[in-house]
Amino acid sequence: MVLLRIYSEIEDIKKLFQIINDLIKNEIYQLIDPKYIVSERQIEIALDKAKNAFKQGKNKSKSLNNELLLWICAEKHVSQAIKKAGAKKTSDFFLFYKGNKKIENILEQIQAKKLKLEFTPDLKALKIDKKLLKTYKLEDLVLEKMAVSYLER
After folding, report:
1. 93 has which bridge partners?
2. Distance (Å, rounded) from C-alpha 22 to C-alpha 47?
3. Is this model's pTM higher than 0.90 or not?
4. Which of 87, 115, 135, 149 lies most in the core, judged by the most C-beta atoms within 10 Å?
5. HEC profile for 70-126?
6. Rounded to an integer, what distance in angstroms lies between the CA atom of residue 33 and that of residue 27?
7. From CA 95, how far away is CA 117, in angstroms rounded?
8. pLDDT one-digit tens code per residue, 100-152
């Protein structure tokens, strides 16, 4: 499993997504807006939940990659998840990848450079009340939202 914060010289996000899809289709990956990621653990749990949803027949999406995005942002509809947490610009996004190809080759193909792996979540985007951070860790609140979204399925 690889989680990288990257920058691509390809300016069109749709074109970038298409190139990545052509390179690593049939493997697990997602392009994610940094505002929605609080930790690597969040991605690991979201992936586990997405896989389990497929095993249990409770998946909301036809693809594991889109199901992963649903879990990351605790949404019920793929279109909302893409609007919300899908990467919007090529100058700064997370690339999550779990597959057999070398990440360096993928980065080269998409003309990308690694940025510092830091998490800069946006409380407003995550719909988390700042007051809750006095009592709870942000990661715990985000994981709780994921768990609640499961109950609402």
Report:
1. 6
2. 21
3. yes
4. 87
5. HHHHCCCCHHHHHHHHECCCCCCEEEEEECCCCHHHHHHHCCEEECCCCCCCCHHHH
6. 20
7. 11
8. 999 999 999 999 999 999 999 999 999 999 999 999 999 999 999 998 887 76
